[in-house]
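Memo to structure team: turn this sequence into structure tokens by end of day. - J.P.
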Amino acid sequence: MILLVFCLFLSAFFSSSETALMSVNKIKIRQMVDEGVPHARLLSRLLEDPQRLLSAILVGNNVVNIAASALATSLAIGYFGNAGVGIATGIMTLIVLIFSEITPKSLASIRGDKIALLVIRPIHVITVFLRPIIFVLNGITRGLLHLLGAAEQDQPNVTEEELRTMMDVSHEEGVIEQDERRLLENVFEFGDAQVRDIMIARTDVTAVEVDATYDEILETFRTERVSRIPVYEDDMDDMIGILHIKDFFLFDKAKTEFSLRGTMRKAHYTIESKRIADLFEEMRSKRQQMAIVVDEYGGTAGIITMQDIVEIIFGDIDDEYDDAGEIIRKVSDDEYWVEGALRLKDLNELMQVSLDSEDFDTIGGLITGELGRLPRQGDQLTIDGLLCQVLEADRNRVTLLSVTRQMAPEKESLQTAAV
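Reply from structure team:
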């Protein structure tokens, strides 16, 4: 009887160990390793091969369960004769389920980390003792999995989707504030973004020709209020350098002796499809604050600055040259005036909608694409419950538009201005 109780205890031990070790929070275990918690380092090391641990636990659990069943059957036959086999089977099934399976596994699911630390040392001893058996069993298992087309694949402990879910849950439970959540979301955007997503488009780039005079450049700096100006030769598709305002004003000779070609710095080039994270590291290591973005044909697609990159995470950062005007102006609770350069992502957050386009990043570009022609003042477009009206258009692009939230999303409709 004592041996039977001992077997049931071991069965409960293996069951709780299985649940605790297979569901342990690996991130928390790593934190405990850093804090020097006893047995945490051993636990972290053994969890690198979970199949080996699981095999040892299952072998041990099956051995003690079979032993317990054999002992119970033997005792029952001694008391009840041949009828004891059925009695032992029924009673042992109930006892094993309650005391050796459900209860220990439920406890381990609640206190998994603590139980994992308690059981890891004896499980390690059992794993070493059963190593030859585990080796054979794992070899057979891998062969069967390969035949079934379910070979093992390395997978990350935590995926990006899981991290996003953890972030959302932490915000809902008050662990992180709204600003902290937005910052973390921006970090994910930083990892996924490409240069084309945030670059300043060619149509918005202020540049000077390499033959420009001192006074012409001075006027450009004064009116545009920028600290760096791209320099081109012949046309905008041939960017050859970047002029820094500091270099310009350090020129201490006569204006007639000024040479832009001799004052500008060498341009740094990048492509539209480059990952922002890679470009950031590249520009940081080369101490570059601006890069010329080239398209697939070698022409100029736009420019990108280090400030543009940093703003992905921290939001808009106004410097001493930025215009005090806002890209968004609130007219009422449901109406805003926005610049055509406002990105769809920012408009979605503002208006609580889900505008999306594979071809356009800004609301102005989306309006132009939906119109199918160059926009004109007065053009209107209703999409996803938003009434968009062009207030100002400059040549071939929307510069200012009114966006009004309607009571309910309507089917996309179009109204054009009179010619």
